[in-house]
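Lesson 9: reading folded outputs for more than one chain in a single document. The general rule is that every protein is listed as its sequence immediately followed by its structure tokens, and records are never interleaved. Here is the first one.
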Amino acid sequence: MINLIFFLLIENLWVEKSHVDFVDGWEYYYLSGDTATQWATSQLKKYKIGSYLYSPAQGGLRIIGRDWDLNDDGWLDVVLGRRGEGQADIYWNSTIGFDTTRKTILHGLHTYPQGFSIGDLDCNGYEDIIIAEYDNKVHIFYGDTNGYSLYSNDSIILGAGGAQHPLLTDINNDGYIDIIVSAQHRVYFYYGPGPFYTIPPDDSIICAGIWINRLNVSDLNYDKELDLTISNGTGVDIYWGPNFTSTINLSAGGNCDHSIADLNKDGYLDIFINQGANYDLIYWGSSSGFNSTSNVPGSGGGDCSVEDINNDGELDIAANQLSANAGYIIWGSDYTTFTLLPLSNSQMQVVDVADFDNNGEKDVLFGGAGGPACLYWNNGGFLPTNRFIFPDQSDDAVWEDLGTLWDRLNKERYLSNIFETGDTITVDSVKWWGNFPAGIVCSLWVRGALDTTAWSLWTLLTNGGTDTILAEKKFLQYRCVFSTDYKGTSRFSFDSIIFYYQYSGMSEDSVYSNMPIFCKNTPNPFLSKTIIQYILPGKTEMSLKIYNIFGQLVKILENGIKNAGYHYVMWDGSDFHGKKVTSGIYLYCLEAKDVRLIGKTILIK
């Protein structure tokens, strides 16, 4: 009978929890939007996770970087390199904006810091700061409960000088964040986990005779593999994944940079190139590649960023205009009009777009190279008098665009692989677990099919719920939309999801009525969460409680009347007050129908 019970527990669950479970899913974009219930294959773009979302080695899903609230106070902070001083400054934002006395100095850098990234490399829930410097090093300042150490905890020494723009991605999908960084004519791949000072580069790309600027990853030929784009003195090179051995060049002039998005909303990614010429370029993507271009106003050569800056539903482009003492915004959707924003320095490089003052409008930060960084506040538009100038000569800042690659909405999207049940089933409930800090919301959609050519509509579920569309199905699939304000994303995690189902024609009473009461937990031992599963042969009053080894009650997990069937509940290692208990042995006690079952579980930290 026990073997039969275990068979039912395994056979009637679809569980996604481990790295292996999630890594076969996809990041995705659907042209008609997140609320579309009937999908057309032609509108779906999906590609391997690892660019914006990844599955850590310990399982679940997390967002790579994109958390600029470094002290978790609800305000986006700014990190700027200090030219000529060998340091970087974290300027702490607050309700009164940026006070130049409220900053933390990171020491031990070269005279010219050249590009920053932010991401939780060690997966401890705190963002780390990664800084490339102009000689041959990349410094890593790890974040923890005490903030940041004043000197780097880890570093990479490259084989050449001119290090720029460290890019964070799980490019090999092994569950660890990797660092891709350029130095003069070569791009180096450093695969996680760290510490990175012990790791030689596993791979590299040689770009002979070309000075490299910005790096990006995306799927530009729609083969579901991540490709690498490299800005350089002749334009943008695309290295096709997964091997990065073949390439094409999108020609442009001068010291250029680039940003990628679906600018014209046709379902293909476009590439904006901020070139050091009399105009900028857009290479328009299509089903056959990048065959057409448009000249757009501007003559940059510095960094660029794509966002919907004026909230009109169209993507805009913010960029630096070298040698003109100005930045500019090119307005979508036709990209023929632009606004100049005066700056005090002709060599500004980095452009970051985000809502720094929490007023619902996106501000524009211009930073680097040798002059003070300038933050333009957006209050229904931009005025030269409505800006904040940082006090010191800066040299670069964070190089990344917030928002999803395709449309820059504040959302990250995950599409599961298809689960085949083997026979016709009905889903009784779907439940998921994770850590969702304030400002991050998980919307979960499901669909089912008898065969994969005729899917049901997508239906939005509540946690623990189900829907009639999941009755009489053989195939299941889910998708998650994680909405975020980019504050606390380092603490976000989608840990696991369970579909509980029964085979058609079998009621719970008929399946379970002759079974004994049963209780089991998994995993055991566990690090942070364990699921306690139990079977009741009939409707009954029951309780499920946690005790320590001294017999003291720690927490009541269930207490009430339950129907016959299989049930489960998660224990996250907390007590009555939500406080995490210490590691050790704990007992779970199920009482129902005059039966008392006690199991042992071990919490390890």
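And here is the second record, again sequence then tokens.
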Amino acid sequence: MWMWRGCGTRSGGRGRGRSGGGGVGDGGGGRVGGGVRIGVSDRVRVRDPDPDPDPDADPVAVAVAVAAADADAASMASGPLTAYTRGLIAGLTGNVHISNPQPPIVTLTSLLTTFKAAETATVSRTKGTVGTRNAARTALRSALKTSVANIQAAADADPDNAEAIITSTSLTTRKVPVRVKAPFAVKSGTVSGTALLEVKAAGSHASYDWEMSVDGGKTWTEIPSTTKAKTSVSALPVATTVQFRFRSLTPKGQSDWSQPIGLMVK
């Protein structure tokens, strides 16, 4: 799986990065982050740091408004959003992988110009200027979200070149490990003296035998078999380590007993 971190330019000063984003800012560092999932397998996940950490912004408005970059970016009203948008526009212009960006580059440019003008107007403190600025910012963010989805779709359609497609737009990526379900897991239940057992399914038409031992595996006690790859056990001795094991039965035959897993019963 891949995730993209951010895009943009720097024009002075230094920005600090954390996990999840590259930096953007006007005259200083910043960064952009957030997440949009895509297809299966080696997926590219687009992360998009909040380019506009303005305190009166809706934090869940769009995917590009996720979290402030750092203390420097948090004090900026429009710089990170502006730099992020400019970087994305530059990355999409003439891009051979994204031949038909949506929204069009001219639309992003127009929305950015409107936002910048509205931001400048708020300096006058004239009534209504803040509302106009906020509306312009929301419109720009919405367009950025659409653009991110457009890039994501292009990467999803070509998994072999997904990283190249994303980085071609001036965004960056990092590979994210895919979680693999444990073949056998044991954990305490919500009620004292209980345990929850779950295994990786052996396939269709499978059944599962379970056993437990309270003497370190010297003797084993049967637990009722199930047709599901999980079961629960109650009335276990508290403050005692209990071991569990399982085996599966499928139309192809019966497996060996698994390696036991111990649990300190709570």
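What the second record shows: The longest helix spans residues 129-157.
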